[in-house]
Amino acid sequence: MTQFLLVLCCLVLPHLRLTASEAAPGDRNLPINQVFPPEAFYHNGKGGRVLDVTRPPFNAKGDGKTDDTQALTAAMRFVREHYELIHGKDFSYCEKMNNRNWVIYLPDGEYLVSDTVSQGWPAQAINILKGWSQVQTVSVDSPEHEVQLNVGGAQAVYSEMNWAIRLVGQSRSKTVIRLKDSAPGFEAGSKKAVVTFYLLKQGSNVNNGNVIQNVTIDTGKGNPGAIGLKWSASNYGGVRNVVLRSADGTGRAGLLMDRRNATSYLHDLLVEGFNVGIELTADAETAVTLEYATLSGQRETALRVGGETTGHVCLSARKLLTRDAPVALRTVHAAQVVLLDSKLASTQDSAAAVALETDGYLFARDVGVSGYRAAVVRNGETVLSGAFIKEYASTKPVSLRGDEPVQSLRLPVKDTPFVKPETDLSKWANVDTFGAAGDGITDDTAAIQRAMKSGMPVVYFPKANYVVNGTVDIPASVREITWLFGGVHRTIAAGKDGPGLFRVAEPSAGPLRLHGAITAGGVFLDHEADRPVVLEDIEVWFHHCRNYAGKADMLFPSPAAQDTAIWRLYRNSRSAGAAKEVFVNNSLFFAGDDQDEKCGLENVRAWARMVNSEHLPGAQYAFRRSDAWILGFKSENADRLFQADDHTRLEVLGGSFLNWAPKKGPAIVSRDSRVFAVCYMWSQLPETILRDEANGVIGMLPAARFPMLGKANGAIVVIQ
Fold first, then answer.
1. So what's the pLDDT on residue 91?
2. CA 215, CA 169: separation in Å to the nearest integer?
3. Distance (Å, whole) CA 392 – CA 370
């Protein structure tokens, strides 16, 4: 396979001054007290999907004395066993009926465990020996059984099945999962997790939407082989507002991501102790965005990216603070790291803050370094010294402008507005109370509209599936809407240019947060009135799986509308006037385009953190008359990746682009615009990487301009 990293820059304007952000580097310890209304809970028998681990059938105690291992595992197992798997000739390996989409909830308490908390054995995987049209589920009884199933390299077990685990604590300081001191099995060399989201070595590319937030995981004392959290998620997922702590400083790693895939958005993490703070060694379509994290007291490395033989790994990190690790960042085997607005500090007179090994790649900007004799060492040789990295790329560019210096755009960066969860449950409007059926068949548009007009600041959807065939207007009084990871879809098509399911109808200076939805059938949100909008954890269903969504009881109880060109997350439905501000985190199909170039976003100021678009007929991300800043992305199977038109400024800082079939490209198109992009492209490369048009003059960069393409471990290239 061909692998490479790409940095693209087409600009003639001088770079802009970076706007100061609201917070210094490091974990912000977000003040979250996450509570839910009674009707949201499964235990109340009204269709809710929040599972309280302290209630039957789980009965965790959370008293710091009782062993809660089995209770927490039972909750994760419950999620697995209550997903409705689809079998028969129409079964697709990554599809499931969205009939539950649970949230596992841990109220404040100390949950003592003596073993790994997981879904438990037997694990379930898929067998593809007869092809994708005849996928079979396989029960895997143990790690030894998985080895037997793969004897001779037959790869009978392809992927661990997707269960969409959402583990949510009430508050991270008071919701603690703690491993018993000197627990059996966690001896040195064991590499055993306290909490894990996967069991099989083969890993998965279908584990959509795993989430863990608002918890502390403490590995206790006397557990030198312990890992706080083993994590993976495909296409979207999140680890946020989490503490990973070793009580005595020992342990293999705080956070380990060593299985395909690990695509997700991580933010506000505190990792204390361990040999390695965060280790990202998963391969194949792995792209992680990390923001606002503090890693302190690691014995070897604060952050390691890339395994002994692993490429295909992308990390985009911002606002990172490391303290007293011998090496703050180690990048190996063509792994790509973008590091922004961070501080790497040591009081131990350590050798190097950043170690690049075997073609590890780094783009660093505005990074402070203290207590290290070298800022960056590459294969043992110092390449950068000093106390501040203003801007550094570890590979010389291949450029339309010859040998002229390359600098990033430095677009102004805004943090995502923090919308604090509402703790007064009387201010939550339940759409069911206003007449919504939530059966995935009945049109609930009118009932949902009544809930929006109730005057309550929070509107929530307790059941698994809702239908909106009209447009629901969101007034200024609403500041948060949550679907609790449930579905909302359109069964009657609105046409390519038809209205969205929801619309920002009234202006406000206060931000509106919409999160935790699975949707299909048109445009999810029309941004009509002037108001900052935050979109988080929203899965717009995949374009290449439309035939599944178009059938009843495959993904939703009723068919999702089919005659729109593409399904989209967001549209600026009033593009005149001032640019709309939109923040997009951990979501799918933001700014996708059709082959007629009619669906790209126009006149927005966008900040996106880990977005995924793939298989679309046009550009995967397209903008006109916009400023767009993307910190991490994942895309696949497309001719065109980015398109910037009509004086757009587009800055892309890290991400993965995979094609498994030949593509002509161009992968990136810029028309009278300014583009800077750091990308990782692999497998089948487009014939043309860049087409740049400025004032009628066209410049081209074919793949042949990059001499390292196809080399072992991949080439690392920069183009301007």
1. 53
2. 5
3. 17
DSSP letter string, 523-537 = EEEEE-SS--EEEEE
Q: Which two tokens stand for residue 580?
A: 């709309």
Give the CATH number for residue 492. 2.160.20.10
Structural domain includes residue 644: yes
Q: Which of 379, 408, 437 is the last residue of a domain?
A: 408
Answer yes or no: do 401 and 499 share one domain.
no
713: helix, strand or coil? coil
Q: What is the rounded distance in angstroms from the CA atom of residue 524 to the CA atom of residue 197? A: 29
pLDDT of residue 5: 46
Question: Is residue 351 domain-shared with residue 372, that is, in the same domain?
Answer: yes
User: How many angstroms separate the CA atoms of 259 and 256, rounded?
Assistant: 9
Query: Cα–Cα distance between 441 and 467 in angstroms, integer?
Result: 6
Six token digits for residue 629: 């800043």
Same domain, 458 and 313: no
Tokens of 589: 């199909």
Residues 494 and 352 in one domain: no
* CA-closest candidate to residue 585, choices 243, 286, 289: 289
Rg (CA), the chain: 24
Interatomic CA distance for residues 463 and 132, integer angstroms? 31
The residue segments making up the domain with residue 321 are: 171-408
E strand map for 273-300: 276-280, 286-296
DSSP for 455-485, please give it. --SEEE--SSEEE-SS-EEE-TT--EEEEEE
Give domain status of residue 166, yes or no: no
Residues 576 and 639 in one domain: yes
Single residue among 114, 145, 180 that ends a domain in this structure: 114
Q: Environment class of residue 576 by beta-carbon count within 10 Å: exposed (0-12), middle (13-18) or buried (19+)?
A: exposed
Is 501:527 a contact under the CB 8 Å cutoff? no
Mean pLDDT by 10 residues, the chain (720 residues): 44 34 88 98 96 98 98 94 62 63 97 96 79 73 88 67 89 98 97 95 83 98 98 94 98 95 94 98 89 98 85 90 97 90 95 91 95 96 97 80 80 97 98 98 98 98 97 98 97 86 98 97 96 97 85 88 90 96 97 93 98 95 98 94 96 89 91 90 84 92 69 38
Edge-first strand order for the sheet with 621-624 is: 601-602, 621-624, 642-645, 668-671, 688-694, 697-702
Burial degree of 165 (CB within 10 A; 0-12, 13-18, 19+)? buried
Residue 70: which H helix or E strand, with range? helix 69-81
Same domain, 617 and 509: yes
Residue 111: strand, helix, or coil: strand
Question: Are 468 and 612 part of one and the same domain?
Answer: yes
Residue 264: inside a domain, yes or no? yes
**DSSP per position, 169-229:** ES-TTTEEEEEPTT-TT-STT--EEEEES---SS--S--BT-EEEEEEEE--SS-TTEEEE
Domain-embedded: residue 707: yes
Kindly report whether the peptide bond that precedes residue 586 is cis, defined as omega within 30 degrees of 0.
Answer: no
- Report CA-CA distances (Å) from 422 to 10, 35, 382, 419, 458: 44, 8, 51, 9, 7
CB 167 within 8 A of CB 212: yes
Q: Which residue has the tokens 């992927």?
A: 159
pTM, full prediction: 0.95
Both 193 and 295 in one domain: the answer is yes
Overall domain count for the chain: 4
